[in-house]
Amino acid sequence: MESVETASRIDPELEALPEPRRPWRRMTLGTMAITALLAVGLVVRLGPLVTYGTSGGAPVELGALTGVQPGEKDAGTWVHATGALAGQGVEYQRPLDSDRYRLVQVEGNPRLWVELRISKEIEPEHYVAPNSFVGRLTPLESAGLRHGALPDAIQSVTGKAPPSDAWLLIDGESPASTRWAAALSVLLIAFAAFNVWGLVHLLRPAREA
């Protein structure tokens, strides 16, 4: 009976050993926590696009862009407007996209800019900017991930930063064209939930036998 009780106890020498180092475990936990936070952050940044993608009906008629002074309630609205654009603009391309983009200020309205998409088949010297636009109206600072660098680009070309209350009309961006953001958000939420679930299970103390 005594030998059985002795064998069932934990060896004091084993108890005195230091806890083993687990650098890969810490790295795994840190990676899971960081990627979960990044996924949630991306979902928040995609929020305006997700909301815009759920809107329906016909675009709101704004009339001439020269007199348009949008407010908070106009953010993420599908609109139609007309007007002339200034001559100077910012031209750029996006990764994995062969088309070009041009950002131009509205003539007579320094608060409002229009982003135009120019097909790769059109030569720059042959391109004529339209005077009618249909797309998403949004504050420039919260236009989304794809437009985050535009304020710096405007400053580098024009020599001055855009107004803090500047707005952007993204010509050609309809609600249907942004519904990919909802699918991506669902995927990111699932990814974040999986990482949180893994963290909980990895950090939970093991049950004693």
Written description of the protein model:
With 209 residues, the chain is α/β, with parallel strands linked by helices. Helix content is 36%, strand content 24%. The protein contains five helices and seven strands. It has helices at residues 2-8, 12-16, 23-53, 150-158, 180-203; strands spanning 60-64, 77-82, 85-93, 100-106, 109-118, 132-139, 167-171. The chain has a seven-stranded mixed β-sheet, covered by helices on one side. A hairpin with a 2-residue loop joins strand 4 (100-106) and strand 5. Helix 3 runs antiparallel to helix 5 (180-203). The two termini are 21 Å apart. 20% of the residues are buried.
Give a short summary of the structure.
By secondary structure, the chain is α/β, with parallel strands linked by helices.
Primary descriptors:
single chain; 209 residues; alpha/beta; seven-stranded mixed sheet; 7 strands
Largest beta-sheet characterization: 7 strands, mixed
Structural class: alpha/beta
- The low-confidence runs, each spanning 5 or more residues with pLDDT under 50, are none
Mean pLDDT: 85
Shape: elongated
- Using the CA coordinates, give the radius of gyration: 27 Å
What fraction of residues sit in β-strands? 15-25%
- Count the beta strands: 7
Strand order of the largest sheet: 1-2-6-7-5-4-3
Task: Specify the helix fraction band.
Answer: 25-40%
Distance between the termini: 21 Å
**Number of DSSP helical runs:** 5
Order of helices and strands: HHHEEEEEEHEH
